[in-house]
Amino acid sequence: MFDPVIAPSGTLLGLLQRGRGDGTLHALTAPRPEALAALNHCVLRDPRHDWQLENRSLYYARLYLDLSGELDAVEAHLFDSEDVLDTDESRTGLALAVLGHLASYGRRDALDLLRRYAAQGSNWAWALDELALRDDDAGLRALAAPVLARFSADPEGEAELAVAVRDAFEPRPWRLWAEDSRESVGTRVRTAQEAGCFDRWQRQLRPTGPRPGWSVAAVFEWAQQGLERGAALHVPAARCLVAVAGPEDRPEILAAARAGTDGARCTALRYLADSADPDTLDLIEAAVGDGTAPVVEAAVDAFERMRSVAAIDRARRWAQRPDALGAAAGRMLACRGGTRDSDLVLGALREAVRGEGPDAPTLWTLVDGAGRLGIVCAAPVLRHVYRETASSHLRGRAARALAATDPSFATGFAVECLWDCEESTRELAARHAETGDTRVVERLRRLAADPAEEDDVQTAVRSRFGPDLAAG
After folding, report:
1. What is the value of pTM for the model shown?
2. What is the pLDDT of residues 238-267, one digit of tens each?
3. By C-alpha distance, which of 34, 132, 116, 106 is closest to 74?
4. Residue 80, phi then psi, degrees to nearest 5
5. How far apart are CA 408 and CA 173, in angstroms?
6. Residue pair 305/365 in contact by the 8 Å Cβ criterion
7. By its UniProt entry, which InterPro entries does this protein fall under (predicted)?
8. Residue 2 pLDDT class (50, 70, 90 cuts)
9. Residue ranges of the alpha helices (H) in 71-215?
10. Among 447, 450, 449, which residue's Cα sits nearest to residue 425?
């Protein structure tokens, strides 16, 4: 999936794409056609950089409810001819997840669309998973024939069916169909279930990789072979070294960390870091200076895993380096440093935003560190990250850091966070938002009464107002 184009944060579309609470609040005061157009744009063109990590579906579904939004645009998207040409689940996954939430809120039109798409669409398995959680037994049983018709009756088709049954995220439909008295349904599904179980058993009997009795050199060779195939195996290889290496093998491992093949060098650095070898830090510094990109990445990762006092002291020396090791040192101090390191962490945070922007991966750790260390003067940078990042998870981390550093958080960002797309951010807001604002009390009551809301959020709401909130 290509990276989505994110509109500016000050626009309605940009707010909705980011999943910010202000997106919902602005949409509810904007002209309805404009709000629905922006909402449909988000649902039909998934704005998430990582759709497996970030939440949007419940956020968008709630807005459809608040706007009494029609689903014509979603229907046209799902059943467009493009559905046959582009079968990547990222094209339709968000729309199907939104329909699933709408169906749970009682929207019959959403349920009907899911049933139609499960019978006809390319991403039918996702639709079936949504229905498995929301549809009744009769509705699911009616889908048995159209779904099974997708698989031919020849050996190839039966093998594909067995894989589909084995890999189904929600097994409920397949269990229902296995009980069907028709041979073309029940017998066929039971056979596929048995084949899937047999396939798992066979795979367990065919393990690959290191075997007992391997030498250190054999482990290094295995790691290099993986790297040449495009598979980074140095992490499992380092675990193998723990089992096969003895004190007498240390010179060989040190030599590999200094000048071995890339696979061996990555493996040795990881092993030495995990075992707190006294030469590790010097070897990591050397690897960053003369290693290839995979070696540098492995060296930096190995360094960040270290917990020793020596590693933290070295991080203080490296924190101002203008390279990957300097960035890693800043992150280490953010995670494990003390108040004496606040200036270094703040400097790393500012430099990351200035040099890489509000979506830099390094910000996740630095933002957490600013909150952990209570760096009050980091609040302006944290507010900038909160507003501008396209990552709803990073925004949530910024909100958590602001709760620890910004005295205005409870009356400011915490209020809009009650409408945020991320459960953890709504939970944070439920614990911090100032209840003197009437919008806050009304929103908390709605969250407490919403059956789709996550338990942790509702627990946070009850901690503020007690068990009678929903009824009040």
Report:
1. 0.88
2. 999 988 888 999 999 999 999 999 999 999
3. 116
4. -70, 155
5. 50
6. no
7. ARM-type_fold
8. low
9. 72-78, 82-85, 93-104, 108-120, 124-134, 137-141, 144-148, 155-167, 172-178, 188-204
10. 447
